[in-house]
Design goal:
Distance between the termini: 41 Å
Largest sheet: none
Strand content: under 5%
Radius of gyration: 27 Å
Helix content: over 70%
Length: about 260
């Protein structure tokens, strides 16, 4: 069963919010106008309450955006750190006996190429786990070969320098994997949707007390909310949309190209 393209899904969510706000606004506006025709006057919603709800919406958007931006920066830094750790460990292979170096260098080249290609494969969530398992198996082979090659008593200094570098390389993989999988709980976006719809409803009902419907401003509000939501989702899932981590991943690609 084919899964929907994540970019299409993000666009669908934002379009749904846009249309939902327009529909809620129109429904509440018409309901207010019908009541006004029957009763000649209707109680106008409190400006303080409307301001409080809009303030809550703005606060939630601010926190959600800055949290997404923080995770984006963390993922970018981890990709660069992984390239640095891998490059350091690769250079320290020169401390090993000459016969042990070629097979380890070959494994490093294979591992670096796999890590560099991981970013593109994250667009296919179904294959991500298999790719991570393959990378882990390669890393275990590198570790085993490095331990064996540096097991002699004359290799104590080499062991003290090489194995910590390999351990750091392994730790960053775990940290980066968790960073990839960390996202806000779905109720955060559900509440964001709900408050945006409530704002549209209150605005529509209040507009019904005026001769001017304010439809243009509601369309503008809905469009801004949809764009802001898309921006947050785009930063939160940088491997799918317009804002991506290709530049940071280039550090791994270039590192893999230098391992000869």
């Amino acid at each position: 069963m084919r899964t929907m393209n994540p970019t299409v899904l993000m666009l669908a969510l934002c379009l749904g919010l846009f249309l939902g706000m327009l529909a809620i606004y129109s429904a509440c506006y018409r309901a207010g106008r019908r009541r006004l025709l029957k009763e000649s006057t209707i109680p106008e919603p409190s400006g303080a309450i409307i301001g409080a709800v809009f303030g809550l919406l703005g606060l939630l958007i601010t926190f959600t955006y800055f949290e997404a931006q923080g995770r984006f920066n963390t993922r970018r830094q981890l990709m660069v750190q992984e390239a640095n750790a891998m490059g350091t460990a690769y250079l320290r292979l020169e401390l090993l006996p000459a016969p042990a170096q070629p097979p380890l260098r070959a494994k490093f080249r294979e591992y670096a190429a796999a890590r560099a290609s991981l970013f593109a494969k994250l667009e296919q969530p179904a294959t991500t786990k298999a790719e991570l398992d393959q990378d882990a198996a390669l890393l275990r082979e590198i570790w085993t070969q490095a331990v064996t090659a540096s097991s002699g008593p004359e290799q104590q200094v080499t062991r003290a320098l090489l194995l910590p570098a390999l351990n750091e390389m392994s730790d960053i993989v775990t940290t980066r994997t968790m960073a990839i999988r960390t996202h806000p709980p779905w109720p955060v976006f559900a509440v964001l949707f709900a408050i945006a719809l409530v704002c549209a409803a209150m605005t529509g009902y209040r507009a019904s007390t005026s001769e001017y419907s304010g439809r243009f401003y509601n369309i503008l509000l809905a469009a801004v909310m949809a764009c802001v939501l898309f921006l947050i989702l785009d930063i939160e899932y940088p491997r799918f949309g317009l804002i991506r981590l290709d530049t940071a991943n280039q550090a791994l690609v270039e590192l893999a190209a230098t391992m000869k």
